[in-house]
Amino acid sequence: MDVAINWLNENSDMLLHFSIQAVIALIILFVGLRVAKMCDSLTIKAFEKRKIDKAVAGFVANIVFAAVFAATVLMALSQVGVETTSFIAILGAAGLAIGLALQGSLSNFASGVLIIILRPFKAGDYIEAGGKAGSVQKIEIFSTELKTPDNKVIIMPNSAIMSGAIVNFSREKTRRIDLVIGVGYDADLKQAKQVLKSVLDKEERILQDPAYTVAVLELADSSVNFVVRPWVKTPDYWPTYFELVENIKIALDEANISIPFPQMDVHLHKD
């Protein structure tokens, strides 16, 4: 006990100095964290002010936050006497080992950079990629967040998105609705075609240019199939799709044109 007390007395100045430096280092960390968050927020606001895609803003803001916080950690370590030059060298060697162990994460980061550079989609676009579909909410360093129409959130690794085909349903201003409508073989094809056209003509959301298509597609097993292909503005796609299907059924019924459906005949034989 006496030895410990003597050691404390002999090294009190050094301990006081180290304690002060440690407190300063903690203050640096605290302030640095606040500054990093502030830089993150300012980056997003600056991008929004310039009307740059918010997904890109979020990605860049994450990188800015990481860079500022890393610099803060180095400053704090330097304050307590750690040689940052050698520390950086150690970090570099450790980073190489960690990088080899976390190749998937590095692949996600690289894919995130490619998404930002190539910009196959932006925030708000409805896409299908990696077997999943949804509206893009934000692009982060390692992942991209999608939201499905039924309000589920999908967090997808960036590498999963960039490793396959990406279908962007929102990029173009217009989309074509593709419907296949079958009528019975006993139906008057000219009348059926005219009924289908009349339904399209009444729908105000259908564009005049390019013009819609109504034509016989095939003579199927139990029906004559028409292809109905009108063009609409992309935001109007699903509302128009649903309404057309309903209105076509009503119009064909009113014209006494049958729509074939699968049937099963059961024959009973008495012995």
Automatic annotation (TrEMBL):
Its main location: membrane. It is a multi-pass membrane protein. The keyword tRNA processing does not apply. Gene3D superfamilies: 1.10.287.1260, 2.30.30.60, 3.30.70.100. GO terms for molecular function: mechanosensitive monoatomic ion channel activity. Homoheptamer. Belongs to the MscS (TC 1.A.23) family. This is Small-conductance mechanosensitive channel. It comes from Pseudoalteromonas byunsanensis.
